[in-house]
Amino acid sequence: MRVYVANFLQIFLPLVLVLVFPRILDYCGISRMNYRPRSSLTQVLINKMNAETENGELVKPGWYQVNLQDISDEKMREKFVQLSADTATQEFARQSSEKSDWIFTQLYQNFAKIFMSIFYTQTDINGILGRGSMFVLSREQYLTLTDGLEGEKMIDLGAGDGAPTMSMFHSFTSVYATEASAPMRKILKSNGIQVLEVEHWAEQGPFDLISCLNLLDRADNPETILQAIKASLKPQGLLLIALVLPFRPYVELNVKEKNKPSQLLDIHGDTTEQQIVSAVEVLRRAGFDLVRWSRVPYLCEGDLNQPIYHLTDFILVLKHQDQ
Known about the structure:
Number of helices: 12
Strand order of the largest sheet: 1-7-8-6-5-2-3-4
Oligomer: single chain
Helix content: 25-40%
Distance between the termini: 76 Å
């Protein structure tokens, strides 16, 4: 009994002090920055609170910046569009931070993830638990980059839970998506998005817009996907690509299989600026011309460790070369 009581006090007493009564620590002269409890859980929570205090703004202006002097192609420099964290982006970050403070929900999800990872991929787990939602572009940012493109049909390839798709949803009469994860497909359908089979989506074309958000570095056959996109895009249609850089291809497979794609895009360079120039050249060889581009943070909901996660994402708007 003494052991259980001691464990309870070790975990929950510091937790209460830090989360519910943080001012008590200050009143007693205990700095949260220097406080080192024995409980690893409490230490994680303190680190998260310290990170929030140090970071201030959850979405940093620097996440949208590009060193255009390092872009060797002058015409490409002229097509850059400077974006920033608008209201929708800030709202996603705020909600993410709030969810990361749901201590018992986060603990449950962490424990569930440990057991579920034996049978499911990370994407499946996120779909089942309703966690890890992503944010790429706001509605206003989509309209800015595409000149307010509207049309009859669009498709979002590898749409996940469909959260990024919603920025484009209301511009089209019919909205389609592909997604390999069964739990994610269920979420897509519940949001009014028509889900097509990964192998046969092109049969529903042609499309006014094809979005490929953070898929090319996670797909086994990115070259084949680009060929299918070219054949399925209307003559005046647009291709919207989001690409995480540095370029590190990784195919999500369920245990023990190799995670390298069978097709590897020739994207190279020592800096992100050099890599995005290389990526545009790869897409040019695939039959697409660049219309405009920008840099945004690829945001993901946080957890006990951080209020929000981000990757460097480049947004490319492209069209058929013959247009």
